[in-house]
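Structure, all two chains, one model.
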Amino acid sequence: MKHILLIGAGRSTGSLVKYLIDNAKENSWDLKIADRNFDFINASYFDLEYVNKIEFDVTNETQRKELIKSSDIVISMLPAHMHIDVAKDCIAYQKHMVTASYISPEMKALEAEAKAAGVIIINEIGVDPGIDHLSAKKVIDEIIEEGGELKDFETFTGGLVAPEHDNNPWNYKFTWNPRNVVLAGQGGTVKFKQEGTYKYIPYNKVFRRTELIDIDGYGRFEGYANRDSLKYRKVYDLENISTMFRGTLRRPGYCRAWDAFVELGATDDSYTLANSKNLTFRSFINLFLPYNPSDSVELKFMHYLNIAHDDIELFEKYEWLDLFKDVPVELDNATPAQILQKILMRKWTLAEEDKDMIVMWHKFIYLKDNKLHERHSSMVVKGEDQTHTAMAKTVGLPVGITTKMILNGKIAEPGVHIPIKKAIYEPILSELEDYGIIFNEKNIT
Amino acid sequence: MKHILLIGAGRSTGSLVKYLIDNAKENSWDLKIADRNFDFINASYFDLEYVNKIEFDVTNETQRKELIKSSDIVISMLPAHMHIDVAKDCIAYQKHMVTASYISPEMKALEAEAKAAGVIIINEIGVDPGIDHLSAKKVIDEIIEEGGELKDFETFTGGLVAPEHDNNPWNYKFTWNPRNVVLAGQGGTVKFKQEGTYKYIPYNKVFRRTELIDIDGYGRFEGYANRDSLKYRKVYDLENISTMFRGTLRRPGYCRAWDAFVELGATDDSYTLANSKNLTFRSFINLFLPYNPSDSVELKFMHYLNIAHDDIELFEKYEWLDLFKDVPVELDNATPAQILQKILMRKWTLAEEDKDMIVMWHKFIYLKDNKLHERHSSMVVKGEDQTHTAMAKTVGLPVGITTKMILNGKIAEPGVHIPIKKAIYEPILSELEDYGIIFNEKNIT
């Protein structure tokens, strides 16, 4: 009997829990799910003798250590900054660990200790980061094996609403943590390399530096740049590559409209507003506009943000959010970002029947036989229902499969890893296909 | 005999040291000057029997404590973040302290301890903050004594080059720490109140939200907003004021041109560039512009920053800096801000014969006898030479006078203070007049 401990049972764990339970009997697993709230877990699962619900307080160190000590592997679905304490306990008690989050410098620093303890810690094995690594590294390795030299690599992922349910002027709804969407782009200056030239984009320009991408059967998207693409040159063993770019997909028009919130300062989460309780959507926007006793908020907004009076398509996006209406905010001591999130949640929340969609797209340009070739690889996954959303499937399934591989000894190298080796990506990609997560590869030239 | 300890002998301490020495004999003072570098101090001072040079390492806690223990008062002219350790030692050994820097939350938190120990700690007694408090609070108190109710208070200060030496298209030269000029506006979202409305400006808009100000005999200036003006409502006991605005003065056109560096991300000091050693001014600017193999850096710059092709006056500012020339940067592992500073120092450094100028301007609007009245108060000080610059005089003299007042028992209230009480501002303003630091007050309506 192997004991799996899952810490964190939030919105994106539905498909992960189903996967673990579906595979439990055959593999002789039992599963402890530890959290304070189990609303996102099918209650009937807890009737199974090998599934246990643990009321868990993440600040209770004693309880955390006890739980980790008595398990064989720990899956942490906690917010990213909380993984590190779990990782230290895992090393202390020689337990393996899986997370879907970006590897932090503190986590990376545990490499030697993890190795010495014989502990495997796999990070970045959700969708992005996660499936992007698996699917991109597969093509990269193929190109190199074929004798090609990779020159350019661009990769984009987006969590969007499925086209059949896309019925608002932003062509966007929240399909995961709304807070992360509001704060997107605030993780430091964007860094990448394009055609041999280093490029840096500050937050206030990120949403104005987009590129357009067409995906067969799904139409047109726009991509904005993510964080630090440069560090993936080393990670992917592509130190001499000319272009290295990681981005996020939205439908065209979203980014330019979103940029207005950035320019205004409405996405700032670093201070609370003096009078947030008494604000309306209109007076909230006016906080960021120059004072003028006679001009309307609408005119000041358009003038300040350089929006032409006849740019109807853009202006309608803001109007549709009721941004210029005196709707009460009703939040005390709130940051601008918290108020903006509240404004957006009124309109961007998925309806009961809405389905989400994950879109991923990679572009590879490589030199072979003295000619440049271009290859694309793309994946589109749609949600099934409110539990098995595209986001829950694409985040949870690779985490589940990785957990199985570690328990079955298929992943055996101790240390702090991300999933970029063939022995890891090949079986995971193969099993993901059984769940409809399939890449479409295409040689362009 | 009273023992004065001055820690920090940098560029702006010339007039302070002269003041202390000029007043030493009559007041029975001796003076220890502690630093690692004494280049800014007239070497002949150290021939005086009551002046001592102490080779001082700020990281040497034992030495710091010994020096503080053996003094009666400590003047800290260290960088702002270093005052706190000095303050804690001053409280422990019951010594008074004077600094010209903004009071930090950590410093403010020492209030009760300082009071209990009978220690006086005066902060914000340079020029801005400093002389602005003294001169503004004087007018505010007068207006209230006359039965007026203050509605609006705006205050602006600028360190500029004197008009006779103003000979470049930016109408600006570095007259104090260049690094602070490059990083200006990065201390958090600007917060103020205008006509009863709260206003917030993010960094990327600070230099586009200026106002114009005319000062008799000195022409036109533009002012951009500083940090958090809101907190001065409480400090000045003006909780119900409609407008509270603190700003910095430049000559018109400077801010719009500076904004380009902000928009590009060229003022970012939070990361180092991958290839800084091999950059030229031109390739540095290109780091922040979209990739395009055929367009020039000039055209991309103008298009990206929305500069019209015939906006010659603006474009010439950049050309005059050689921004588009392949001048080697020659800085290894540099941040964008460090490189920008180097570019600017080639052109913005004061020549030997150049004089600087400090300009301060306050506007007060108050209700009295059911009518609104407006009063202005302004001060212009020019530098005498490279030691007694306007900056050195206006920062150093109030620090020196305050030190004298504490030693003579004229300031006697223990605690952590800023200089806003009549018993403090009146004698300091009066003595500053002897040094040509004179406010011109004018009733407008």
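The mean pLDDT of chain A is 96.
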